[in-house]
Structures are given as structure tokens and as C-alpha cells.
């Protein structure tokens, strides 16, 4: 029997002019966003604020994570004009902070790393003052792919652990907990300049102690910033919600994380890794 969604997870919808204009811009530019493809609960707020998380390398993922609504299957060939279109859209939106993510492309020799680098470069060429956050896949543990992204000098390198180690086989099929930790560790060793960031969902059946252990693991590899949000099941075909955490519990996790040494912890029921990412960094920089 599904658990009833609590009142603090009710999202107010807004279909204003900015929302409509952004949808038209994305459609005209033949661009995807994770906001749309993953059915993010914050899409109305973000689009109305003229922000979006760009999804490169198409909209079809080669993996089948149990929590994610992004389509999975055989992706289309890489579109090398996509980075330029993203940069033009960033400029049209007047963004000073751009977030770029991708589907996982295990079918590509470099996992799509070169297109991340091209996108960073195109944005830098068109809007030099724009800060760039990349939310990358694990590249199957390839250091060469990670190096391609880091050499393009993103301001923030984000890679989400998503869940605790025990739940990886159900939640992140094809991924590996230690491999993801290693990616963040290697990134920090190779180039300590970018802020490193990770995000998790809770409510998938993890214990309080497992959340602590995950947070400690991230701190041990030097992760600077952490986001914690409530898992919301996209459909009956996806993993069910085992628990809805109260906002007070999210506040406690934020306090615990900052005592552990994270520079900033963004924790709340509707927090997502890329949601108001520019404000997460602004908060960090003010400290």
C-alpha cells in the first residue's frame, strides 16, 4: 500500500509567461533539460525563474536506475552541435550560473566526457563571466574521461552518490558505490580548484546510520558540498517510497553534515542536486 504524501511535499504550480517562453526556447533550440525528462517537482519554479539544468548527449540513458524517469534504451548518435546550442540558450536566458548534466552514455568510448568539455568551452567563449557546474556520470571509473572534463575547468564538479551503499543494486543498477567515491577523490587530487559536490535521496529504505556513514565517506574524499532531498517515486513501475522524512529531520541532517565539515549542506524535502545551485554556491562563498 503506497504511503500517503505529506502536506509539506505539495508543490504549488505556476504556468507564467517565463515558463512558457523557456519551453519555447528549449523546443526551438532542440535542447533537453533534466527538469523535463526526470519530471522534477521544482520545474515550475525553476522555469518561471528562467533557470534550467541542461541535459546533453540526448535524452536516452544506457542504464536503468530504479528511481529515475529518464528514458532508457539505445541512444542516438552524439550531436556535436549541441554544445553551441546550449551556450546560445545560456546567453539568451542571461544566466550567470549554468548547470550541465547528461544521460549516462556507456556506449561511448569516453562516456561523453568530450561533449561536456566542448559545452564548457562554448559557454566560456560566449559568456566568459558565467560560472559552470557539471553534474557528471561515473564514466565507468575512467580517469581519462574524468581528466577531459576537469581540464575544461568547470567551477563545480558534481557527481551524485544518490543512495547508501547497501541499496545500490536496486537503486543504481550498473553503478558502484566505491567507484563513485573514487571519482570524487581522484577529481580532488587531480585538481583541487573546482568545488566538489554530491547529492543523495532519502526515503528508499536506508537507515539513519547508513546516511551518516555515507556522509562520512563523502567527507573522507574531500567532498565540499552536499545536497539531501526526499525521494519521490515517478510511477508504480519505479521503486516505492519507504518513508517521507519530516522537514525537522532534514534540518538535523544539515546540522550534522556541517559539523562533519561540509562547506555547505542543502537539505530539505524538495531539494534536488541542481535546484537553485547558484544559491548553494553563493551561500558557500559567503562563509
Write up what this structure looks like.
Helix 4 packs parallel to helix 5, helix 5 (113-126) packs parallel to helix 6 and helix 6 packs across helix 8. The chain is α/β, with parallel strands linked by helices and 287 residues long. The termini are far apart. The chain has a single domain (9-286), classed as Alpha-Beta Barrel (TIM Barrel), CATH 3.20.20.70. The strands form two sheets. The chain has an eight-stranded mixed beta sheet, with helices on both faces. It has a two-stranded parallel sheet with strand order 3-4. It is built from eleven helices and ten strands.
What are the defining features of this structure?
287 residues; alpha/beta; TIM Barrel; 11 helices; 39% helix
Question: What is the topology?
Answer:
Elements: H1 17-28, E1 32-33, H2 34-37, H3 43-48, E2 53-56, E3 60-61, E4 71-72, H4 82-93, E5 97-102, H5 113-126, E6 131-135, H6 143-151, E7 156-158, H7 168-171, H8 177-190, E8 195-202, H9 208-220, E9 225-230, H10 247-260, E10 264-267, H11 277-286
Amino acid at each position: 500500500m503506497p504511503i500517503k504524501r505529506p502536506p509539506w511535499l505539495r508543490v504549488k504550480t505556476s504556468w507564467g509567461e517565463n515558463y512558457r517562453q523557456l519551453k519555447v526556447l528549449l523546443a526551438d533550440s532542440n535542447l533537453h533539460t533534466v527538469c523535463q525528462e526526470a519530471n522534477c517537482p521544482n520545474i515550475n519554479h525553476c522555469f518561471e525563474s528562467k533557470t534550467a539544468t541542461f541535459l546533453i548527449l540526448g535524452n536516452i540513458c544506457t542504464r536503468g536506475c530504479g528511481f529515475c524517469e529518464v528514458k532508457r534504451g539505445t541512444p542516438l548518435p552524439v550531436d556535436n552541435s549541441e554544445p553551441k546550442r546550449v551556450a546560445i540558450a545560456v546567453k539568451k536566458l542571461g544566466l550567470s550560473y549554468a548547470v550541465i548534466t547528461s544521460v549516462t552514455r556507456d556506449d561511448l568510448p569516453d562516456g561523453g566526457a568530450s561533449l561536456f568539455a566542448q559545452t564548457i568551452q562554448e559557454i566560456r567563449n560566449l559568456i566568459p563571466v558565467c560560472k559552470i557546474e557539471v553534474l557528471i556520470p561515473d564514466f565507468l571509473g575512467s580517469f581519462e574521461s574524468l581528466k577531459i572534463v576537469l581540464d575544461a575547468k568547470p567551477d563545480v564538479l558534481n557527481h551524485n552518490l544518490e543512495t547508501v551503499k547497501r541499496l545500490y543494486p536496486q537503486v543504481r543498477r550498473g553503478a558502484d558505490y566505491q567507484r563513485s567515491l573514487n571519482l570524487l577523490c581522484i577529481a580532488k587530487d587531480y585538481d583541487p580548484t573546482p568545488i566538489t559536490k554530491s547529492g543523495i535521496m532519502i526515503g528508499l529504505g536506508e537507515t539513519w546510520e547508513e546516511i551518516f556513514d555515507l556522509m562520512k565517506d563523502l567527507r573522507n574524499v574531500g567532498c565540499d558540498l552536499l545536497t539531501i532531498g526526499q525521494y519521490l517515486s515517478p510511477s508504480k513501475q519505479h521503486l516505492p517510497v519507504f518513508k517521507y522524512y519530516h522537514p525537522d529531520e532534514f534540518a538535523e541532517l544539515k546540522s550534522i553534515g556541517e559539523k562533519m565539515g561540509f562547506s555547505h549542506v542543502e537539505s530539505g524535502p524538495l531539494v534536488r542536486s541542481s535546484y537553485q545551485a547558484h544559491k548553494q554556491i553563493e551561500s558557500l562563498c559567503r562563509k
